[in-house]
Amino acid sequence: MNKRFTKLSRRTFLAGATLLAAPTVLGARRAAAKSDSVTISNFGGSYQDASIKAVYDPFTQETGIKVNITPWPGLDKVKAMQLTGNIQMDVFIGSSNDSASGSKKGFWESLDPSLFDAPDMVIKPDSDYVTFETYAQGVAWDPAKYSQGKHPATFVEFFDMQRFPGRRSCPKKPGMLELALLADGVAAQDIYPLDLNRAFRKLDSIKSNIVWADNTPQTISLLQTGEVDFGISFNNRVKPTTEPGGGVPLAFSFEQCVIASDCLSILKGAPNKENAIKLISYYLRPEVQARFFNMVPLAPVSKMAATMLSPETRKWQPDSSKPNNLVVDAVYWVDKYDAVMRRFLEWTMT
């Protein structure tokens, strides 16, 4: 790691964030100068609780800037904000697909690369969004109801209604198309470009047994309440159920996963842009990443932070080199997102 470069970047940033990110609108500059807050979207549930403890509260203690949280809006609401000029948040947390698609639409402010220690990052920053974590999506279940061999562990088995009958919960997102193709026997290295017709045919085979999770916490609550038998959820959401106060303990399979990443970006015209820059820079510090990812079992983008994780946390991290695991290709989704999302939502309503 280039320590000199990092120190210089932070000192420069703390001394003059205004110079690093010149606002395009004079009014916004004046509003930002007086601001003592920043608003960021979050996915809710245990993830949001950990965000507050590991990132937001310590950030406020260090800078005096209050962090407000708003529910994850989706790109449609971001687009509405841009069209009306009523920008209600500053920092957007979204998947690499969302972030790349939003970038192409011009939703984000440019990010100064000197804010980040690029040599320390597994995934390098883009011009207007930066990856800060990777996560795994896989099969989850209640181990008290379904012992070893009685539950699906791969996507092929998740779609096998004869061997594993029961209701399924699935995130209401087009990412289910990639899972469907893996379930239909497509090798991970051959997934892109997606064969959409084949993916929808596969989804048709379990459609009558699907209960859609409209948000991420529901991927857990539907399983814990017994409304479904098996579900597609996330490693960082299942792990807290195994801890005190987590409710009904669930299990998660690492036999096959879809690995994706989440990114941070600043909405164009954000009312608290300077504070948003400070918050994003804070998010990427190795010690902050280590603190956060020792609470949620995701993988940090910082190489240094990865060395600070506990052995217990590492048990809950996927192996991206495993051949049957799929690493999502965000570049594919840049041009396809809107059309595929529209077709996917129409399919869920039929």
Q: What is the terminal separation in angstroms?
A: 53 Å
Largest sheet features: 9 strands, mixed
Q: Let me know the average pLDDT.
A: 88
Please tell me how large the radius of gyration is. Answer: 20 Å
- Helices, by number, come to 16
Structural class by secondary-structure content? alpha/beta
**What is the 3D form?**
globular
Uncertain parts? 1-32
Q: How do the SSEs run, as a string of H and E?
A: HHHEHEHEHEHEHHEHEHEEHHEHHEH
Strand content: 15-25%
Number of strands: 11
Helical residues, percent: 40-55%
What does this structure look like?
It is built from 16 helices and eleven strands. The protein is globular and about 60 Å long. Residues 1-32 have low confidence and may be disordered. The protein has helices at 3-15, 17-20, 26-34, 45-63, 74-84, 96-105, 155-158, 176-183, 196-204, 218-224, 235-238, 273-283, 286-293, 303-306, 311-315, 330-348; strands at residues 37-42, 66-71, 91-95, 130-141, 168-171, 210-213, 230-234, 251-252, 258-266, 299-300, 326-327. The strands form two sheets. Strands 3, 4, 5, 6, 7, 8, 9, 10 and 11 form a nine-stranded mixed β-sheet that branches. α4 links the parallel β1 (37-42) and β2. With 350 residues, it is of the alpha/beta class. The termini are far apart.
